[in-house]
Amino acid sequence: MNPRYLWLADALQLLVFFVVGPALAIAIAYAAWRRKSQRFNSERFGMVCATSGVAGALMLVCAQRINADVREAEYFLQLACMLLSGLLFGVFMGCGGALLFVPKPNA
User: Fold this and answer.
1) How far, in Å, CA of 18 to CA of 101, rounded?
2) Do 25 and 91 form a contact (C-beta atoms < 8 A)?
3) pTM above 0.90, yes or no
4) Which residues, other chains included, contact 95 with Cβ-Cβ below 8 Å and sequence gap of 6+?
5) What is the DSSP letter of 39?
6) Is 105 exposed, middle or buried (0-12, 13-18, 19+ CB in 10 A)?
7) Averaged pLDDT in 10-residue chunks for the chain of 107 residues
8) Residue 29 within any structural domain of the chain
9) Closest of 17, 94, 81 to residue 48, by C-alpha
10) Strand, helix or coil for residue 102
11) How far, in Å, CA of 14 to CA of 4, rounded?
């Protein structure tokens, strides 16, 4: 990657972590609050919350451990891991918020 375009990768990372991820979380929690999805119950929201949180953390650690230079091809893999972890953290936050709004099944 040309170092002249490095600001674009940084802007994309900031956009995913501070705009797209929280917007995704708000959309998931709002859909759960309005009960748009009849197939999702609190158990499924909990499973998706835990899975996406662990996967996001693993992707973030993977992106940190790659430690690629901007001139190497592995930099794109590192950028992809970082962006995917931002989206997974958005799903994690949204499903965690949905756990607060979805009623528990009657036992």
Assistant:
1) 23
2) yes
3) no
4) 28, 45, 46, 48, 49, 52
5) S
6) exposed
7) 80 93 93 80 88 96 88 88 95 92 67
8) no
9) 94
10) coil
11) 18
Residues 6+ away with beta carbon under 8 Å from 62: 81
Residue 55 token pair: 């996967």
- Token pair belonging to 66: 């790659």
Tell me what pLDDT residue 107 has: 52
pLDDT at residue number 94: 94
Tell me the C-alpha distance between 107 and 104, whole Å: 9
Is residue 25 one of the residues assigned to a domain? Answer: no
Number of domains in the chain: 1
Q: Is residue 52 included in any domain, yes or no?
A: yes
Q: Please state, as a whole number, how many other Cβ atoms lie within 10 Å of the Cβ of residue 62.
A: 15
Q: Which domain holds residue 74?
A: 41-107
What pLDDT sits at residue 105? 64
Inside any domain, residue 78: yes
8: amino acid identity, one letter: L
Q: Output the CA torsion sign for 31, 34, 39, 41.
A: positive
User: What is the distance between the alpha carbons of residues 23 and 53, in angstroms, rounded to a whole number?
Assistant: 17
